[in-house]
Amino acid sequence: MTARTLTNEELQIMNMFEQNTGARAEDVVIATDSVVFVVQKGDLGRAIGKHGANIERLHRVFGREVEVVENSEEIGEFVGNLFRPAMIERLDNANGTVTIKVADKDKGLAIGRGGKRVNRARMLLKRLFDSELRVV
After folding, report:
1. What are the residues whose beta carbons fall under 8 Å from the beta carbon of 19, sequence distance 6 or more?
2. pTM of the predicted model, to two decimals?
3. Dihedral of the CA atoms 14, 6, 86, 80 (nearest 10)?
4. How far is CA 129 from CA 70, 96, 121, 123, in A?
5. How far apart are CA 80 and CA 96, in angstroms?
6. Domains along the chain?
7. 46 near 1, Cβ under 8 Å?
8. I need a surface site. Which of 52, 59, 88, 128 has the fewest CB within 10 A?
9. Is 90 within 8 Å of 114 (Cβ atoms)?
10. 3-state SS class at 25
11. Nearest CA to 57 among 16, 14, 12?
């Protein structure tokens, strides 16, 4: 995984997340309409909370959509976490490029409205693993 420096705003938001959920945030991506947290492996359930209570509370606090992704040291597992619940049929990782094939029935789910999910995945893969993403 690639080391990176966090801004003061990112540190403050991660601190608020950790105080509200009890889960350990390892990274955060702040967009105009959403906040995406990458949480420590095993903390996804704690981050979401019972019936999504923590996510709802954070949505009210930040005034934006809140998404949570479970981290992994293994790039294949991390990509699976990014696209969950979409079914990834094949994953190849070569020369700094991760190529995935998504089940036809899950293409729309994997790409997201306006390409939002795939763009988020590209950004997080570049940021955490210094890898590009290709969806076929």
Report:
1. none
2. 0.88
3. -110
4. 14, 9, 11, 10
5. 17
6. 8-70 (3.30.300.20), 75-135 (3.30.300.20)
7. no
8. 52
9. no
10. strand
11. 16
What phi and psi, each to the nearest 5 degrees, are found at residue 56?
-60, -45
Nearest alpha carbon to residue 72 among 108, 101, 98, 103: 98
CB 44 within 8 A of CB 68: yes
Q: Is 34 helix (H, G, I), strand (E, B) or coil?
A: strand
Positive or negative, the CA dihedral 8, 14, 16, 18 is: negative
Q: In what order do the strands lie in the sheet with 97-102?
A: 88-94, 97-102, 132-135
First-last CA distance in the chain: 25
